[in-house]
Amino acid sequence: MEDWTGALNLEVEDRKGKTVAKKVYFQGAFKVMRPIYHDDSGHACYYLLNPGGGYLDGDRYQMKLSLLEKAKLTLTTQSATKVYKTPNNFAYQEAEISLQPGSYLEYLPDPLIAYQNAKYKQKNIIRMDKTATFLYADIVTPGWSPDGERFSYQTVQILNEVYVDNELVVYDHIKLNPASQNMNGLGFMEGFSHLGSMLVVGKQTNSSLLDQLYSAIDMNSDEYKLGLSILSVPGLTIRVLANTTQVIEKLFSEIHRVISQEWFNSEPSFLRKY
Amino acid sequence: MDIVMKHNILSLFQLCDSNFPTGAFSHSYGLESYIQENKVHNQETFSEWLQVYLNEQLIYSDGLACHLVYQALEEDNLQKVWKLDRLLTVQNLPRETREGTQRMGERMLNLVESLYDAPIFSTYRNRIGTKQSFGHPAIVFTMIAQYINVSKAETTLFYLYSVVSSLVQNAVRAIPLGQTAGQKIIHQIQGDLATATLKIEQLDEEDFGIVSPGLEMSQMMHERINIRIFMS
């Protein structure tokens, strides 16, 4: 058994229309609270906690999440994930997610804040049935640094691998490396500091959804840049560059709202965090 | 120099020639978005874009694929080749560049099948026909190079050159730049292509598909730009 700073194993199932935990196990600096049901749809919401308060040198976190048939789950965090300086080894987090037929997962963690001299690597591996639906968003933000430098972290690397019916269909690999790249130059962050990524994989995706999203979003704003494109399987990917977390969150919640409306004729729940 | 041996390299020159009809002249890989925003407008700004495209995207995708496919072919490990074909396709998130390279790969494959009598080309084409594979020019290029005994490093270097020289031709038309400016850029970047080839040899599979956000964004945004002379 590998030595994890924090580990979480969560398996949920649909029990008469309500999604409940079949197995919950956590140890070290990873914890989940009891599920919250925002409405009577049976859709469960779990909040992930990092009691340690932040990721430090060489920390390693592992999450295994499994949604059995028709389970519906939102997984979010209670607050931002903070990565502090890692003088020797990068902090690492991996998630293995399994989505069985008809299940629906929204994985919407709060932003990642990478502070001065932080090195962080994250890998999400999603194995899903073609009738399952996956919705994911992440935001990478630079933390405050004493000398006011805009990008004081060293590296942030995020890899998302999605397999549908055992075939690799998405390989989304971003590595920001301010230690050796000119982040303000052409082709990197285009003058912005925050990067948001959203990934949606679900058989309901079609070109009319894309048109609806384009009409819901102002593509000519100076506050952000947004790109979106459909995947080689039904699904889409969205990237946003902006200067604040709020701008990206607002765009993502609008996109989330359009998708929920279109696919489930419902409104997403407001994820209250105190 | 053994002129009989070296004539193999001419076969690779043929593939790098911008007259070789793969369709590369209709793809800008997001450059056109920067031209429309007026961020790329002259020799200097285009060179900056080309350097970033080479070092922050091309080496981790096509370049690393050349290197790994060549190794797999040497080991007769075709499963690995097909895996890389899929990786190359699914790491390419912007639809236009993904579908564009697929079409180029298929077109190139059909052409080389009429030039070379190696079974691997029909195997690859059959896999594409039955949707088991996607098709990619870097893979077709490497298959030919390995087949005609060009070394691994030269294969990667020549492939990078072929991509860069088509991009310069496209920039000359689109920005526009003078023909002399275009040739100066191709001349100046040759050392960087050699450096990039060395860097690719140091990479491993964990580095595959890394892309910088701005480049990818420009490729996604290209889908919605109004006036366009390129398909990506």
Automatic annotation (TrEMBL), chain A:
Transmembrane segments: none
Keywords from the UniProt entry: Chaperone, Cytoplasm, Nickel insertion
Localization of this protein: Cytoplasm
Keyword Nuclease assigned: no
Main location (coarse class): cytoplasm
Top-level taxon of origin: Bacteria
Molecular functions (GO terms): nickel cation binding
GO terms under cellular component: cytoplasm
Subunit structure: UreD, UreF and UreG form a complex that acts as a GTP-hydrolysis-dependent molecular chaperone, activating the urease apoprotein by helping to assemble the nickel containing metallocenter of UreC. The UreE protein probably delivers the nickel.
Family statement drawn from the similarity comment of this UniProt entry: Belongs to the UreD family.
Protein function: Required for maturation of urease via the functional incorporation of the urease nickel metallocenter.
Protein name: Urease accessory protein UreD
Organism the protein comes from: Neobacillus vireti LMG 21834
Gene it is expressed from: ureD
From TrEMBL, chain B:
A Pfam entry, by short name: UreF
Any one GO CC term of the record: cytoplasm
Principal location class: cytoplasm
Keywords of the record: Chaperone, Cytoplasm, Nickel insertion
Top-level taxon of origin: Bacteria
Annotated InterPro entries: UreF, UreF_sf
Localization, UniProt: Cytoplasm
Keyword Cytoplasm annotated: yes
Role summary: Required for maturation of urease via the functional incorporation of the urease nickel metallocenter.
Family in the record: Belongs to the UreF family.
PANTHER family in UniProt: UREASE ACCESSORY PROTEIN F
Protein name, entry field: Urease accessory protein UreF
Record organism: Neobacillus vireti LMG 21834
